[in-house]
Amino acid sequence: MAAAVVIAQALQCYKGIMDETEIRRLSVGHVLCGLAVLFSLCVPPLLLDEFSLLGTHLTWLCICSVCVVTVNVLLRLTLKPNPSTKRSSFAHKVNKLKQSGLYFFVSCLLFHGIIVLYGAPLIESIWETFLFAVLLSSFTTSRCLCILGPNFHAWIRVFSKDGAMSVWDHSLQITTICSIVGAWLGAFPIPLDWDRPWQVWPISCSLGATFGYVVGLLLAPFWIYWNRKRLTYKSR
Amino acid sequence: MKRLLLMLLLAWLSISFYSGIWLFMSGFLLMRIELGNQSQCSSPPSAAPHLQDARCWFPQRFDKAVIVIIDALKYDFAKYNPENDNPKPYENKLGEIHRLCSAQPRHARLYPFRADPPTTTMQRIKGFTTGSLPTFVDLGSNFASYAIQEDNLIHQMVSNGKRVVFMGDDTWDGLFPKKFYKSYFFPSFNVKDLHTVDDGILQHLYPTVDGGDWDVIIAHFLGVDHCGHKHGPDHPETAKKLMQMNQVIASLIEHLDDKTLLVVAGDHGMTDTGDHGGDSEKEVTAALFLYSKAPLFAEQLKTEAPAVPQVNLVPSLSLLLGLPIPYSNLGGVIDDLFGWPEDKVSALLSKTTAYHINVQQVARYLDSYSRAAGDLPAEKLRALADLFTSLTSEYEQLMSQRDQLSEEELEIHLQRILQRQQSYLDQARHVCMESWARFHPMHMLMGCIILLTSCFFCYIIAEAGSVLSLPYKNLLGYPLLFTISVTSALGLAVWTSGLALDLVTVCAAATLIFQISFYFNFQAKKSSPSRRQTHPVYLLLSGPCVVLLFRCCSLFSDSYVVAEGSVAPFLLTSLLTVTVVKLHWDGKLLLPTFTPLGSESLKPSLTPAYRRDGSRLMWLLAALGICVRLSGFFHNCREETPDCQPSSFLSPLSSIRDPDIKNVSYVFCVVFLGFMVFLVRKWLQHYGNLNIASPLVLYVRWGFPLIVLGIACYWAVSSGTEDSLAKLKELTHLALVACPRAIYAMAGLGLLLILWNPITVFMKSRVSDPDNTVTTYRGAPSSEAELQHVIPQIYRKMQRTLKSRLQHGGEGEDGKKGVSVEAYGLGSVYSAAMVITLSILTLVLILLHSERMTPAFLLLLLEAVIILHIHGHVTNLYSEGVELFSVPWYSVLAWSLAATQNFYSTGHQPVFPAIHWNSAFVGFQEGHTNNIVPALLVAANTFSANILFSAGSCLLLLWPFLCEAPTGRRRKGKKEKEGGTEDEETPMMEMRIREDPDRFSVALLQLGTKYLFIQGVQLLSCVCAAMILRRHLMVWKIFAPKFLFEALGFAVSSLFLLLGIALVLRVDCAVSNWFRNLTLQQNR
Description:
The complex is a heterodimer of chains A (236) and B (1084).
Chain A: H1 2-47, H2 57-79, H3 90-117, H4 126-139, H5 141-148, H6 152-158, H7 167-186, H8 203-226
Chain B: H1 2-28, E1 31-33, E2 64-70, H2 75-78, H3 95-103, E3 108-114, H4 121-130, E4 137-139, H5 153-159, E5 164-169, H6 171-175, E6 182-186, H7 196-211, E7 216-221, H8 223-231, H9 236-254, E8 260-266, H10 281-284, E9 285-292, E10 308-309, H11 313-320, H12 344-372, H13 378-400, H14 407-436, H15 441-464, H16 472-496, H17 503-527, H18 543-554, H19 558-562, H20 564-585, H21 612-631, H22 659-686, H23 695-719, H24 729-756, E11 762-765, H25 784-806, E12 811-814, E13 820-824, H26 829-848, H27 854-878, H28 889-905, H29 932-942, H30 944-951, H31 955-962, H32 992-995, H33 997-1028, H34 1035-1083
Parallel strand pairs in B: 1-4, 2-7, 2-8, 3-10, 5-6, 5-7
Antiparallel strand pairs in B: 3-9, 8-9, 11-13, 12-13
Helix pairs in contact in B: 1-15, 1-17, 1-33, 1-34, 8-9, 12-13, 12-14, 13-14, 15-17, 15-33, 16-17, 18-20, 18-33, 20-21, 20-27, 20-28, 21-27, 22-23, 22-26, 23-24, 23-26, 24-26, 26-34, 27-28, 27-31, 28-30, 28-33, 30-34, 33-34
InterPro entries (chain A): GPI_biosynthesis_protein_Pig-F
Subcellular location (chain A): Endoplasmic reticulum membrane
Main location (chain A): endoplasmic reticulum
């Protein structure tokens, strides 16, 4: 009897350690993601002439999306958030990669459509809208792709109340929701008559989304750490 | 009885909202009636026998005048204090005025110029041209433009042959269209632009003055005002601007001659932040500077000049320029200007004569005004009239015995008359000001409080409605008795104490007393059942709450009110998306197989199966987004958004030049109209409500196409009127009148039919079915002819049996003797009546709009159906048949947001010039004899979205029953029936309502209060915005019209909400009767 209790305690302890290391890995990943955004803000002015966040916003949108996607892919390769047990063939991997690209593209189009339905201009500044959609996709879809893979059912699972099964899933939930809420809130200053340069479409929204994303990145590890007792992942 | 009480409770809530609105309006909306009368040179208000030399009312003193209006020229700006060593940026900058005043004291004088609130430029221009006190709503003959209808200075100048040249602010263009001999307008809209207007004026000012082709020049500079708005007065830019103005005055004087009067005036002041609009001392004290090269004043002034009310400029200028005083002037002449034969007695005589004319004119105006409107207090008017008669007789007596009196006596008499004349004018102005130009903060505050408490009651009734099951008779009865007694006692007490009994206050007191006593009765009844659980704080963060909060906050910002047409759809889409996402988050969209996780499986191998509802909801959301986005193409514009283009669909078809495009658009409009009617019929057919041969169904089958035909005819005739042949003139005219009237009549007929018999249920009993057996002539069919008779019968029978199996909403019951009755369309009997009513209303409203707005109405209906579907699915997914009776907040909010959005999508804006006045003449080409019919038509046109959505809000309660899944939860039996074992697979749909009539009426009450609450909260924030921001720059342009539209919209919405609920209750009555008859038949 006593032995059983000891074993249970040890298991608990082990689980705690597991979580702690996982959270640490997660934090590292998040810091890197945040650095990607910071990089896109700080480095281009040194390299490019006439670069400014507000003036050449389209360039920044491209750079930021590329940075974030690159870091996500690198993290996927190094940290391996959801390690799959079975080894897959090279062809399988290529197939997955192709599928991921397709998913990403479709999500960009979908985001574009949704943004237009929410009131963005249809024809004028179509590039701004599209690149904003790309930015949103790189904040949300690319992370989904890197953590869950091109598996739509898994996505559906993660974004429901009891669907998260690892710290990675939780961080995915938090960052995605934060980015989208940030973008949504970013729309609010647009009608005001302050005549500021950042009120131009889509600057406030993309800044809002970026801000939300960064806040989500910073918030997620703390939130998970805080609630680590409550979060028991049934699958592990 | 219960139904009546339900209606009474809702009506009471609406009435308490109305009284709040009324109270607020009485304190906030400054209202007055514009008179169309004009003063004429030939008919002075009184004959002045001794003024033979006057061509007009009074001898002309100046031939020409240059009037320089410097916007927001505060008195502090113009005042010069030589002892001030360290002047602020706005001080001591107009040195020229000071120099002139001290060097030529008899030629120049500076006055504080007191503006009347509201101190906005447009109201001020109206003020110092008409001499009246402009209010927010000047009820004139024409709302459609801002043009001044009243008699005014410019009109008098023009009609007396003066050439008026204007340069500057283009507000004047709107106010005096086509009045000016020459004009140079510059856009005033951009407050950030300091120089365009001023530089433009300066370009033209001196050449014009030197050119001599003018009698009056008006130059309106905007730089100082814009500077105040942009930087505030305490800024170097203001100093620069004032210095420029100083330069302007200095060089202008060099261009003037002896017969020219120079007037430099500010229209209002500004606060320390550079704003204006309110009634604070700093805003109302502007500056007035008068100068002429000929001596203007009799004596020089020792002290600072006394303040001059702004309206006083009007009579003074009129008389100096030899013009009649504008009819509605309330100002008194500035007496310094009339003391000019320099000897003392004749100066006094001249002054009294000027005053006499002035007094006569004011008295004439007050007389005409009090005949036209009753808003001036009667006893004060009487006192004024007494004073006036004594003054006139005294003056006339003095004039007749002028020669007999000695100089000193005459002087004393004249002095006395002068004082009394001045006091008469002051009192007259005061009386008018008290009723026209003053906010009543107490009234406004009380109005707000009543609105707030009404919202609160709506909320508690909506939340506690289920507790409130039985005894709400004494909830209404006792408070009513209590209120009547207390109010009458109070009224009596006030009356006996001799105070003036203000109707508004009494009404407010009555409402408040009623609410308080209601609250205590309510609490007493409520405390007996279990206490309501307290709501956790995080409820505030739920989707509907956040959206409602955003919506209310957005009404406080002028930019958001301007952009409301795109904010409302944004919030609507967000709200419904959040609802669906939350549904997914709660796992309601996944099939229950998902929940048990394999305990051993490491890999999440589960493939969550999605319900069909999931994808359906996604499609519905996308369709909603598309509808909302498309309806944005029908928006109108307001003048605050200069680069907005009003939708081309708003102009009537007859305005299109190209006949091909015209024809194509016409065909499209008719097709859309037909499609709409087709969809309605299809829907009714789908639910089996088109089978019976009752008058109502006949009406739907034949009346709807007839209405469509009528509308199509009307459009055809009205769009092609110009190019019709002369012979057909009579005919087209007849058609233009007859078609719309026939449609009104048809619609009225339809509504009456619905009220008379709203049941659209086709019933047949199965056993006694005469077609059950195939009748033949004799025995087996032998001949071809007999076969031809029999085969259709067999076919019909088979069809019927098939149909009875397939028919949705088929409802079968067994009687006692095993007789089953089939009733088609019973499951949607409530909604069918509602849908028919709404379609009739829609058709009439389409008729009132421009032809090409038809797609907007189609989108409106589609959007409503989509919202209902989303709501129905979500409710059915959340609840297992139990919760269907309570309508969740989000759907009510979405419904009201959709109403707001469609207000804009039907081509409206909450400003007066955007109202579609043409709609008043649909069916009444030759005009109206009274004001009620056109007001109703225009209101119906303006608030069509509110009408449709609030009348249809009952559908929110009914639709989840319709969407009920055909399989799954069923209830056996009914209250009326003992049997009912057959046909269990068919859903009960709206017949579930019959199971629980008490809960149904409570649910209707809750729905009504929820809708009222959401509308009321929006109204409340509009009211608060108007009250708090009443000094805001934009209050008269944005917030006040928005408040008016919101208040009227609320009134219309609540009225139609009540009518909609009444209709549902009528259907409920009819269904009860129907069941009673059925049981009687079965028992027989």
